[in-house]
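Model it.
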Amino acid sequence: QVQLVESGGGLVQAGGSLRVSCAASRSVFSINVMGWYRQAPGKRRELVASITSSCNTNYAVGVKGRFTISRDNAQNMMYLQMNSLKPEDTAVYYCNLYYMGVDYWGQGTQVTVSS
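Modeled.
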């Protein structure tokens, strides 16, 4: 069992920045891939960014160059730094990891970008 808790969402104006965090209840050192997803109203959940245990990263086209994913294995944390935010980035952001055959999700944190 792994519990994931996101934090750091909020309301920001377009062009602003936010950092969302994900705290895991167990060590993430051995977990290969962790990721951030988002789901906007009426839309499907989509991958925003992922990071491997060796810190290789992958980004959705629409956030590349604006968002940065990172992880701190010692603190069992994952982060998503979001810069130059746009109204279309408005969504609930979820952290995710796959461990021992199970997909784990946090409860999500709302990010709202006003124009």
